[in-house]
Amino acid sequence: MMKRFALTGLAAGIALATLAGSAQAQEKWTMTTTWPDNLDLIQIDRHWVNLVNQLTDELQIDFRAGGTLMPGTQVFDATETGSIQAAGDWPGYWAGRSPAFSPLATTTSLFNGVDYLNWIQQWGGFELYQEVYGQYNMVYLPYGITNNESGFRGGTPIESLADLEGKRLRLSGRDQGRVLERLGGSQVTLAGGEIYQAIERGVVDGAEFSTPGVDYKAGFSEVADYWLTPGWHQSASVFGVMINQDAWDALSKETQEKLKIAADATMAWSLAWSERQSTEGTVKFLEDGTEISHLSEDDLAEIQRITNEVIVQGACENPMHAKVYHSMVSYLEHYANWRDISVPFNMSRVTDNLPSLKKIEACMQQETDS
């Protein structure tokens, strides 16, 4: 009798737990992204969504490819207002709203992929994403990192900085455009899906988009015979998910934590996945006969010099821009205490020519005083 009662009680407990789980599974989100199905960066978004849907019973995300619900340019507003609950993005697309979004997405000749990982996880970067996106009624979970981008591709060779003079180049990012203009080129803004035809028709003299794996799958080998490396304009890139604040607040603390865990796991996966794809893409470009040129050390030093000036210029124009870069350069200087003595087995590039922290701080003080 006692055994039957125990079994009955156990069954009732299981039933109640099941009902509780069913009652909890009430949140359904609609999420889209800036990436259409034909751009491989969408795999990062899908990886996170799949993890979330496996990890939590409280939330299920209905993910739609970029362009199926709305143009990619509209996902920021849609998430901010709550028309959709979440959207995958690259922060640099919103630099017109605040220049602080630019370094949250990428840096010119500064961070590599490991630097972004370190900074986000241990040096205060995560909190700055919350501060910047929080101004627009959103929580932000960085969940993707790709390392150094390919560089410029085109139908005519570009082999040195001197060759940039007068060239019209597709390039994303405000700071990147400023550096390019100082080098004698002009920035052309095009959506990723428009680059192929722009190169093919000669609308631009060259273009950058993403890493070699992504570029190859976008078909650039068919229209661009020449490739200039390295991709100084985006020494690494970050991707993530914008989440409407009200939608986030409606989740339990446990589910919020699971979303963060999924983001961390996706971030680690994305860096390794991207490097594998970059390697395979490079091999395929070479097999197709693509000619690769590499900028000289003197050219790269000149890019670094101009980059440092552009970063200080931006810091003097916008307090949040200054705050983000101050955090980044402070990280690099702090990390150098260990990084520089662990060469050649360190996890980050060594540079003795960083943007001036003192000049950035002077800009920040001027903005405070005013």
TrEMBL record:
Keywords, comma-separated and alphabetical: Metal-binding, Signal
Pfam families, alphabetized: DctP
UniProt GO BP: transmembrane transport
Binding annotation for Na(+): 209
Source taxon at top rank: Bacteria
Any GO molecular function: metal ion binding
GO cellular component term, pick one: tripartite ATP-independent periplasmic transporter complex
Signal peptide: 1-25
Binding site residues for substrate: 149, 170, 208, 234
NCBIfam families: TRAP_S1 (NF037995)
Name of the protein in its database record: C4-dicarboxylate ABC transporter
Organism from which the protein derives: Halomonas halmophila
